[in-house]
């Protein structure tokens, strides 16, 4: 729930905008850092979830590294002040230009996703007279039991090197003079709420680690990716259970002395700390449906249109005004010329009026970063809790 002071302040701000609760972000980051500390786990924040510079500065200050998937993200991380030696660069399609830029910035590690990429990276590093540190991303074929569009670790997914190609991969590594192999990397999917999935991942990581060690490779890094989910239905249960999450890895992962365990969390760190704040433009009461037409749409928050993702929707102007039993069912839609531009169907809300302020909750991850200019919309703005 938003505090009343927020709602009255929102009234005077032009909508739509992303509202960042920087105190909540701080609390979430600190809770995560405290939960990881006893195990000396390393966190690299996945910039793809949100690369807003204000958010990034807070994350950098807590001491986390950066997990990037483009040279743009690598450069953003450096600009914001992340230590180059705490930046990893993943991605199934790194271009030569991007690899060169990352080599120039002497980042910590490239998470390599194909044998061909190993050869290209080796060649580009050689041209610069550099040695690039690499981790091999392995596709472990572990089902993340999440939405099929955000599952990444199954045989049918494009990510990582398949287990049957690993011998060819180690041969290539041995022959690559400008690469230093430091570890193995996994990421099985996003918005994972069933933590048992991570036990299965640990079993697979242990098997792969043993395979590499049998072949005489020393693994400095075990990178288990990210994916920890948040509670979209109860955004007020704000901070994910980092303690239980890390405990699983401590219990089920075989960690050798001197080995570092790396995590790449995105959504769990930033998801709950922002809401999309938007105003009702029109109410349309039809024969079959009642519509609330908002001034934000799929161009500002694409997840519902793209994945039928659920985000809790609250009419802040009317909440607590009438008894909770007096509700109307609305399809809550945006202004974009697409039928999928809908934040929720048959959503129970208090009777709503033109000018009411709505909050679309849990929008801190994969929200602002996935905004588009479709319909030549204005760029979405951000407002921070410390400003108002
Ligand atoms: N590491 C790798 C290699 C990844 O591909 C991802 C996310 C992460 C880390 C961070 O995952 P997280 O902790 O945030 O779950 N746009 C989708 C999510 C796509 C996730 C892509 N990869 C959504 O809105 O649900």
UniProtKB/TrEMBL annotation:
Pathway the protein acts in: Amino-acid biosynthesis; L-lysine biosynthesis via DAP pathway; L-lysine from DL-2,6-diaminopimelate: step 1/1
EC numbers for this chain: 4.1.1.20
Residues binding substrate: 267, 303, 307, 338, 366
Record PTM N6-(pyridoxal phosphate)lysine, positions in chain: 48
Binding annotation for pyridoxal 5'-phosphate: 227, 264-267, 366
Cofactors: pyridoxal 5'-phosphate
Pfam families, alphabetized: Orn_Arg_deC_N, Orn_DAP_Arg_deC
GO molecular-function term, one example from the UniProt record: diaminopimelate decarboxylase activity
PROSITE patterns: ODR_DC_2_1, ODR_DC_2_2
Source superkingdom: Bacteria
Keywords linked to the UniProt accession: Amino-acid biosynthesis, Decarboxylase, Lyase, Lysine biosynthesis, Pyridoxal phosphate
All copies of domain Orn/DAP/Arg decarboxylase 2 C-terminal, residue ranges: 18-364
HAMAP family found in the cross-reference section: LysA
Complexes and interactors: Homodimer.
Recorded family membership: Belongs to the Orn/Lys/Arg decarboxylase class-II family. LysA subfamily.
Function recorded in the entry: Specifically catalyzes the decarboxylation of meso-diaminopimelate (meso-DAP) to L-lysine.
Protein name: Diaminopimelate decarboxylase
Gene name in the database record: lysA
